[in-house]
Amino acid sequence: MGSLHETNSSAVRKRIESHTFDNEEGEEYEASRFGGFGDYMRRKKIKLQNLDAEIRALSPGKPPIFRGVVAYVNGYTQPSLNDIHNLIVSHGGGFLQYLDGKTVATHIIASSLTLKKREEFRRYRIIKPAWVVESVKAGRLLPWDSYRVVDEGHSQKVLRFDSGRLSSQANIQKRGYKDQSDASWYTSQLKDQGRVTEDVGSSATAPATHDDATSSLPASSTGKESDYGEFPSMGSLAEDQDTPTTPKQAVVSVEEDSPILENTAEQSASVVEPPLEETAPVEMPLLREPISVKPGMTPEEYNAQLLSDPRMRNSSVMNPEFVQQFYRESRLHHLSTWKAELKAQLQAATQEKSQSQTAQKKRLPGARRYILHVDFDSFFAAVSVHKRPELADKPVAVAHGTGNGSEIASCNYPARAYGIKNGMWMKGALQMCPDLQVVPYDFPAYEEASRKFYSSILAIEGVVQSVSIDEALVDITMQCLEAGGSDGRGISEGSIYREQARADEVAAKLRASIKEKTGCAVSVGIGGNILQAKVALRKAKPAGQFHLKPDAVLEFIGNLTVQDLPGVAYSIGAKLEELGVTYVKDIRELSREKLVSALGPKTGVKLWEYARGIDRTEVGTETMRKSVSAEINWGIRFVTQAQAEEFVYNLCGELHRRLVENLVKGKQLTMRIMRRSADAPLEPVKHLGHGKCDVFNKSIILGVATNAKDIIAKEAVSILRSFGFSPGDLRGLGVQMTKLEPVKSMQSSQQQLNFKTSPVRPKREPNPATDPDEVDSPRKGDRSNLSTVSSAVSHAPSLNDSTQKPLNLAGTQFILPSQADPEVVAELPGDIRSRFVSMSKSQAAKTRSESPTPLSRPGTAAGSVELPPQSQLDPDTLSALPEDVRSEILAYYERPSTTAVSALAVAPRPQPSSSSRLRPTTPTKKRRGRPPLKASKAPGNATLTQSNFIRIRPSSAASSAERTASRQSSPQINEPVEVSEDFLAALPEDIRREVLEEQKRIRMQQRSALNIPATRKPPQPKPSGPAAAVGQKRLRLPPLPERPTFTSKKLSTLPELREALSSWYSSFGTDGPFAEDVEALSKYLRRVVLEEKDIDKAVSVTDWLGWLISDARENTKESTASSTSETKDAHAQSYQAWTTALDMVQESVQAAVQERGLPPVEFS
DNA sequence: ATCCTCCCCTAC
DNA sequence: TAAGGTAGGGGAGGAT
Ligand SMILES: Nc1ccn([C@H]2C[C@H](O)[C@@H](COP(=O)(O)OP(=O)(O)OP(=O)(O)O)O2)c(=O)n1
Ligand SMILES: [Mg+2]
Question: How far is CA A181 from CA A38, A156, A373, A719, in A?
Fold first, then answer.
């Protein structure tokens, strides 16, 4: 299994990652980091206006005096950035809009430098703009020496373009790892055998050491051996052994300086400044190369050639429909989607069930449990075979194709007899079994089978948790105990026997029922906890059931391989192997401390327990969604940057869709980029696969939660650019939203309000406590204390102010527990949400006819401006509404948002970019090569921890303990069952002692948690808790200028300003702004331009306001469809007021810019 | 200590 | 040809 540990161990990687190249004494210049996003807009504009190619075309005959120069302008200059750019490019030079650490500037042009920058650029040629101007004047490249900004020679090194040295550096191994920045410090010498290397292809100089901790490089990247799909058993490691000529090496081979430089410059420029026309691609302007892989080919050239095949174009990213097409065919995508849908539906159903069932009996602490783990046998394959009975006894696999790299999603048991496994590549499978029958996917059929499966399962009396489309957990403890006639605690032979018999019977019936409905076999594992059920399932398969009874647990589990345990696979398995552990029973030889120190506190303890058959996890504990993402790592082959950016745009569209679908917005955007490893061939073994890649993540904090496609896309593209990767090397791209907040359309709940024409400033003064300096950041949200809102919402159920509240959703009684645990209350909206979500999903999935869940039922319509009690809402109608309206309605019922306030309270200060760090992994663990060749493991959803809730989080320190405590007293009041008595009784003496000790320990912990205030009765719903109070006070603080808030360095970063604006806008959105505020903002931005000299910031802020306005406008347009004309009118007025305000601000900024003698800026 | 961020790992 | 997605647990290590 681990036999093929690759040389690419993490330890080795770490070292390489931090590697800088050897000859630091040499002439290399340090690759510099990108300049941050601050000036993104300004530079982008230049880009849009002046494409290098155009510039050159427009200025023929100019002497190419800057040939070989790659310039970067820092700060503001005279002549302007724009002009310098023009001068340089038109005279044959290259120009960088960004410093990205990959593409290397040869000269940095600046009028002056801050000390910090001075340090940052210490190793560069830093020269004054005059050098450019005068060189042009002179018609030749003047010696830069006389134009130094930093006028002493000792730290500025000279970069020699002309020696072969430059290009030879291209071979230097290093990583584009963020860690390198400080890691390089102490790890500089390690070079290592050609593992992950830095992309030098696009730069003339190898990126070098970074000791500048403040700089912001790619947030991270990791080497990733990606072609793990190639199973070791195949032996053919063709790809790995392949040593194709990479462009880097090609560059080396060309030793003429000038061409190299030219190449470099162009390439660098093109990375950052993609030609525009590429947005309508189709025609690859690139090289009419011969069909062969020329040694010196750039990745772009290669891709262009590759894509000249129309079929290639069609299945790759070149196809405009690519995203949808890919997702339509991606099994993994379907699995994920299905899972999310099922989770939402089941959660809703469970909620409903538990609420309608009166007084559900609680289980006693030490009682026995009976858990079923139900799972289709070779699901995809079975469904397909069912349609093709003639294949029944043949080895069958489900896959898209029969080529080497086609992945087998599922194979039947005859195929498994040959050693074939799910997830294996076709090549390997065919080697094992040339007769393998390959059948295509049939996603709708899987859905259908699953629907029947779940309908059978939901018919059982018990708690259900979905694991996946073909797999579920059912806790049937209640009915078993009933059948046994005991409380599940005593050890009574008779009771236990009857309980077990009942469990077996339920399982058998279930299997029969599903088999009958679907024609496919399921197996059932039965055990006293999730772990036991799961491992029992293994033995049950195929087409059987197995009850792992208490007295057999230890032996059975002990003889499993560690990797058979859920949550243990390649990596953890290897760590255990290092500890001398192969079988689960071996784990018992290790002390808890040992395990913890080797694997971490949670994992260590968990394994210690697993080894003894213990698993305290409860069935059905579902948590709230924490992230939404979209990612594609297949078929990514770009020729131009513009294509890449367009793709990112599409991907963001997808993300947007999902955010809306889930009724959330997010505050943190993370972009994930896979880039071909330097030593990876241009063509991976897998058709259009990503091959071996380095992975880079970077996240940014948005000032305010958003789901707007354009904003997301803008940021994502900006991140992508910041890496400056050569588009041809991109292999995978993804975007993820975290720090989610429930969607709240501001217009919705306020829309009945009248537009205030008279700017009577509402109590804003009554805000004496608003010491601007102490405002950590303006809060948005809390509309509950806007008089405007409360009136509008007054008749809606307030989830805050009542401990028991009948809500009737989808026609079923819905009652909050009387012991109003704040945590429960806090979670409520999420539950409601999940119902909305699940409903909208089942609608979307067109699984209309008869929903398996009891959720949807026809009803009356909702949607008039004056919304009825929530109980009257008809889910179907609701889900059919346009997204904006739907979210509005939801927002209407949404708990007034202390949520947003507290979420903000914990939001980290936007960091310029978290400083890089080195993770000194112990060099001894080198499990990393390729992942496992092992049977697909039993499904592992065993670990559901109660983790943080995003939405409600008391912001004060006091609340942490309280949260813990209140969770203890939440619905499942009982302590988690740890070990049942009979199980304990069955244990050998020594192990029992251990377990008892463990239990004692756990109980101590729980007690200490419980002791905190709220053991019994948590403080009553506290809309006025500390967080809310803070929110109230600060909410209305118009985060506008003239206030130290804005001018203090600390609070003037872009995200903060954005957030401030958002807050401002949401406070006065429907009313229109106050003139004085607008004026203040204008003045402030004017100062930003004139004093801070940060035009970008001013422009960005202004644009943000523009976004807010137009975004709201979009919402309004849709949502007012059914509103009164009066409302519409108010909106129109408000909109106009805001537009005017925007105009004023823009004008002000523009004026300031012009005062500085700079070309006018453009607002988006 | 505890939190937060950035990853890795796992599952289907 | 081929469709290598996605969410959540949790560890390491810096920030507080
Ligand atoms: N690497 C994988 C693993 C699974 N699946 C899909 C196809 C499977 O049919 C389905 C269910 O996964 P299981 O792990 O339950 O595997 P099977 O149901 O195919 O086989 P069995 O449950 O009998 O082991 O998920 C996949 O596409 N790729
Ligand atoms: Mg299965």
Answer: 21, 19, 48, 19
